[in-house]
Amino acid sequence: MRLAAFDFLATQSETYGDCLPSSVLREGYPFDGRQVRLVGPQGIFKPAGLRLPLTITTAPAVPGRRRPYEDQIAEDGSLLYRYRGTDPDHPDNVGLRQAMLERVPLIYFHGLAKGRYFARWPAYITGDDPGRLTFSVAFDELWSLELTGVSATEQPRRAYATRMTLQRLHQAGFRQRILQAYRESCAVCRLHRPELLDAAHIVADKDELGEPITSNGMALCKLHHAAFDRNILGVRPDLVVQIRADILDEVDGPMLRHGLQDMHGRPLLTVPRQRQDRPDQELLECRYEDFLAAR
Q1: Element (DSSP H or E) covering residue 225
Q2: Residue 244, strand partner residues
Q3: Is 219 in contact with 187 (CB distance < 8 Å)?
């Protein structure tokens, strides 16, 4: 049943990417003539037929409200997952503790927004701290499920997999916030196909100003994201699109004409309704200077 859950999520991820709809998790997957759900009303979930938990979930944040359990990142880079309640001997906590002792792989869901969850597996409980009411969680590579026993490479492999997972979670969270703010439409052309949209940073996240906040991003389709990153397309601080002069002079097919040249001088077609989510003017000024220097 556990391996079937992994296979099911792998198939769903091919369709939805890192961000899975909650409806898929609630409906679950067929196994042995019945549907097996992947989530329940509590964060630690064990479907009927399994002895130990299958999934652990961090609820999505709701503006203005605290989550029932705030998970954190430990100093060693692992995820700290909160106990169910404050009783270390609650059956859910006992189940995770036993999963740690038996090295049983789990699935981790992190709520990015209402109805949207980041999924990662295999996840392992690697530590238990009753004093802080937390379990330590590390991630591993999917192919590690075929390994038996403990090897000298396990710890560094899991440390790397955990770091990459948290990085992907960070990126997926930024993308979800941006697409939600832009109503899943490209800011430049209003294309409304989420699978063809990216969350583009105005100022790169490696820059000291490049925070992963909505005002430092725009929802752009694949074409306009690539053009923006390569300074073929720029956005003025007054939210008017500019196309580089040499591209405007170029003669090519309809994609160049309609996809880029016709965008020149037009205002952004989609902007967030909430003022605090709209592109930051100072960040746009910094980025527009880079665009002008490339002309």
Answers
A1: helix 222-229
A2: none
A3: yes
Contact by Cβ (8 Å): 95, 46: yes
Query: What DSSP element (H or E) covers 31?
Result: strand 29-31
Are 239 and 268 in contact by the 8 Å Cβ rule? The answer is yes
What's the rounded Cα separation, in Å, for the pair 66 and 229? 36
DSSP 146: G
DSSP assignment string, 152-183? TTHHHHHHHHHHHHHHHHHHHHHHHHHHHHTT
Q: What is the pLDDT of residues 21-66, one digit of tens each?
A: 999 999 999 999 999 999 999 999 999 999 999 999 998 877 666 6
User: Contact at 8 Å (CB) between 61 and 173?
Assistant: no
> What are 232-247's pLDDT values in tens digits?
999 999 999 999 999 9
CA gap 16, 10 in Å, rounded: 10
Burial class (CB in 10 A: 0-12, 13-18, 19+), 210: middle
